[in-house]
Amino acid sequence: MIYLLLSLLVLLPLLFGWGKLTSRLLGFTFTSLWANLTAGIVGITVVASVVAFFFSLGIVFEIVVILIGLIGLVVSKNNFSEFFSLLKNRWLLVFIFLGVSITTFAPFINDHFGYYVGTIKWLSEYGLVKGIANINLILGQQSSWHIFQASFDAILDPFLRINLVLYTIFVLYLFEKKLWNLLLFIPFFFLFLHSPSPDLPIYIFSILLIVELFKTDYAENFSVIWLLSVFIFTLKPTVFWLPLFVFLLGFKTNKQLLFSIKNILLTVVLVSLFFIKQIWVFGDFIFPINSNLIDVSWKPSTFLLELSNKIGLLKTYDYQYTIPEINSWSTSDKIIKWLTLSGFKKIVNLVVVLAVFGFGFLAIKKRNTKLILLWVCITLKTIVIFYFSGQYRFMIDAVLPLVALVLLSITLKPILSKGITLAGIGLIFIVFLFPKILQENVSSFYVGQLMGKPSAEQLTKPLEYSISDYNQHKVSNFTFHTPKNYHLMHDIPLPCLTPYSLHEFYVAGIFPYAYDENDFKKGFYLKKLSPSDKKKIDEILKNYVIYYKIE
């Protein structure tokens, strides 16, 4: 806890300094604290994304980021004093302290072990690696949020708790704007503070932008809102509905700002950087879609992409049905099966559908063009996501802004909003302090099984897991590490191939080869396995258990 508090007190001023420099460079003027901090995040992420093509985002880069942030603080003079004035609010301190406290618990989100840590390690040690998706397809995502996290994981945030900073920005925003009803989101956000999950920035920024568009006079800041929506898209393309909505709204009400030269140039920079990055690491425009428009030597395997699509389809129905069963259904059958899954996921799916339909009914009833536009974009997003992989976690970012608008339309006394929020936080703490409650009673909530026991160590630093048991192998010119008794890469030394990845390569008859075995920065490409290499992989796989074999 002490480490996180100190880290937070250093990171916030640095982000503010970067925000001031970014806004000056781009010709924007931000008066609110949250906007300057957000500008700092965007500035660092864009710079780090460019640097990562040529260098690693290790300790040297982090020192440069810190120094630039300090320069920005000097330039801004006493403007950061607003932060300290806000700290006089006891309620603000309470929510920040509770956020820090919950962040000290160990990570439990499955993707944290699956690719968050692995992605950040690659970025820190090598930067953006050409064809990194050929090591493990999931590494082809390379979210901009992980690039931002990698900029601080050597000194200021080695425990990968950067989401705590974002949570603090959210709380600061609510207290700046006095939007007490939105405090009710805090218990839910507490589930994402233990990992550098790109879901949290999508949830928070989506809410903030929609609130700004509906509850403020956004005309003067429309360019900033548009650019931030594009930036959010680069964090996770599933949030395409947000820039689409902002664009349609701007086309209707702010064409001059939307199509200004500066806006167009900055949009081209953000979008081009995103697509170039994706082509570099994945071999196509958007992970994990095979557009067949790009032909590079490091392009991913069609077989593995098709396998990924099948897994996404199975996850849509929580592995409760087989691929042949799913493919035999009509569209209506697919929707009904999705809404009647066994376990808690059907409840979440129902809530998503009811929220979208309910909001659409209200928007049409009020005959509000802005609300109808928002509903159309969110409905489109829901349909597209269901078509590719209808996992509820890919839909929540569209539902939360709707909930925010409903909450802001309800009149609640501030003390009541704060009281309900504290009660929700209390329940979250009970779950983390006594994880067996969730593990024994909600078996279908898989990630709950990964929650660890609390420890006194949390008073000084957050808990974390580490895997030190692994083997080293070499196939052709590629030396790699494989965890002995674990199926995910987590913090295994680079490069890491999980037993399942080896099994995939064996079945596909291909294997990643390094362009230069002495310099992994030069990247990887796939090559057909020679009989001797295939036999070697077969011998290696005999030492591991493959739980879900490819048929």
UniProtKB/TrEMBL annotation:
Pfam families: DUF8201. It comes from the Bacteria. Residues 1-399 form the DUF8201 domain. The chain crosses the membrane at residues 41-70, 91-109, 158-175, 182-211, 223-251, 263-283, 347-364, 371-388, 394-412, 419-438. InterPro entries: DUF8201 (IPR058514), LIC_10190-like (IPR058065). Keywords: Membrane, Transmembrane, Transmembrane helix. This is DUF8201 domain-containing protein. It comes from Flavobacterium solisilvae.
